[in-house]
Specification:
The protein contains 5 helices and 5 strands; from the N terminus they run αβαβαβαββα. The chain is of the alpha/beta class and 289 residues long. It has a 5-stranded mixed beta sheet with strand order 3-2-1-4-5, sandwiched between helices. β2 (112-117), α3 (119-127) and β3 form a beta-alpha-beta unit. α1 (4-56) runs antiparallel to α5 (212-288). The radius of gyration is 28 Å and the shape is elongated.
Length: 289
């Protein structure tokens, strides 16, 4: 059994860790509220824009637009991997990396080019010799729509320069504080699709000014930037939710450990007191004899 000094030191260390995890939980909760508000504001805009593009792209000229044109053969796949810059968020980063590795193996490592958003994904794949052609790190605390525009412009340039025949993305979709879902979907070429359960009827009597083609040319780049913005907001909210839950569990586990160590400390102290009393009694008996 450990001595009293060692147990007391361990209790102090666990209490200090508990203070850190409790503080991290509070910080994550504050960031989650703000990021969730931004995410909920962006979702209706992104959905409505997607519906409008889907309606406008049902024309022959839309198939000739570079960002809508599907290639006959997919030789090189571009994979956008959205992770966090930090850990301590349970399986948030691990699930993304596992899914990315699975898709890379399916397509062939030599046929995939990676665009890593977030330090965790970048460091993981860079150290293992994957073909990382672009990375974005250390921007989450100052996340703005301009960040999404810069990333979107770079991804668009990669696609239009034929570096990749198709670009897909892997990110965490925020369902609630305790649940995040890993989503794997196509980004480029843009394939406007809608949920059949939603009302997406547009009247044929609507007049577009300027023409549908000009509007479509204007909306497609905005749609790409909005998609990137959605991925960033969903991922950031999911990260804060995962970290908040992880730190809450860590705080509770630290409390349980402190209780166990306190019980062990009391047992060790009682043992030490009993031993000292026996020594005193034994010494007194020896003197009396």
């Amino acid at each position: 059994m450990a001595n009293l000094k060692e147990i007391r030191s361990r209790i102090k260390s666990v209490k200090n860790i508990q203070k850190v995890t409790k503080a991290m939980k509070m910080v994550a909760a504050a960031k989650l509220r703000k990021s969730q508000e931004n995410m909920e504001k962006a979702r209706p805009y992104e959905n409505r824009l997607k519906k409008l593009i889907c309606h406008l792209s049902n024309n022959s000229y839309a198939q000739n637009l570079p960002l809508l044109k599907t290639k006959d053969t997919i030789e090189t796949l571009g994979l956008v991997i959205v992770t966090a810059d930090r850990g301590l968020a349970a399986s948030f980063n691990t699930n993304i990396i596992k899914k990315a590795e699975k898709e890379i193996n399916n397509a062939g490592k030599d046929n995939v080019k990676l665009i890593c958003i977030g330090k965790k994904g970048y460091e993981y794949f860079q150290k293992r010799g994957y073909n990382v052609i672009s990375e974005y790190i250390d921007f989450w605390n100052e996340l703005t729509f301009n960040t999404a525009i810069n990333i979107g412009n770079n991804i668009k340039a990669i696609f239009l320069s034929n570096q990749c025949d198709e670009i897909k993305v892997i990110f965490n979709y925020f369902k609630n504080v305790a649940t995040q879902e890993v989503i794997f979907e196509s980004l480029l070429p843009i394939k406007p699709t809608i949920d059949d359960s939603q009302n997406n009827t547009f009247s044929d009597d609507i007049l577009f000014e300027p023409s549908k083609k000009e509007i479509l040319n204007l909306l497609i780049p905005k749609h790409l930037n909005t998609q990137i913005w959605k991925y960033l907001l969903e991922s950031f909210a999911s990260e804060q939710g995962a970290r908040m839950i992880a730190m809450e569990n860590a705080t509770e586990n630290a409390g349980d450990m402190i209780s166990d160590l306190t019980l062990e400390f009391n047992k060790a102290r009682q043992t030490a007191i009993t031993t000292e009393m026996l020594e005193i009694v034994g010494g007194a008996e020896a003197l009396s004899n």
